[in-house]
Amino acid sequence: MATFNRGLVKLQHQVWKNKLLTFLNGGELQIAINHKECAIGQWLYTEGGFEKYSFLPEMQQFEKQHAQYHDAIKDIIDLQLAGKSTEAWEMYESIKSFSNELMNTIDALDDKIAADLDNFDRAQVA
């Protein structure tokens, strides 16, 4: 079962965003568009991350935001592939705050997991 690693999840998100920026700047499309196929999606659905933490509201929010973010990115990619670069960049700029919200949710999820583990450890000692 997969353990949550805040730093790794944030790094994976940043690497993915950098690949999107490379694509928007004329490079190859080298990102998974489907939210279940990127590195975070693999952790969630293949390695058991969602199953392990699905009881937490923060995980449910993270999963939902992650899928929504991918949906928005798909629209950006479609615009770029259709030759509508200006619109693609405008949409990219418009979702930057959503990316920040996703980062905040990652922090909240990690904090919740840490608090739950701390409570579990204290219960074991008592």
Question: Could you explain how this protein is built, in words?
Answer:
- This protein has 126 residues and is mostly helical.
- The chain has one domain (6-23, 32-125).
- 77% of the residues lie in helices and 0% in strands.
- The protein has helices at residues 6-24, 39-46, 49-53, 57-81, 85-94, 96-125.
- Helix 4 (57-81) runs antiparallel to helix 5 and helix 4 (57-81) packs antiparallel against helix 6.
- Residues 120-126 have low confidence and may be disordered.
> How far apart are the termini?
27 Å
Query: What is the total domain count?
Result: 1
Q: What amount of the residues lies in strands?
A: under 5%
Write down the secondary-structure element order: HHHHHH
Mean pLDDT: 86
Low-pLDDT segments: 120-126
Features:
126 residues, single chain, disordered C terminus, mainly alpha, 6 helices
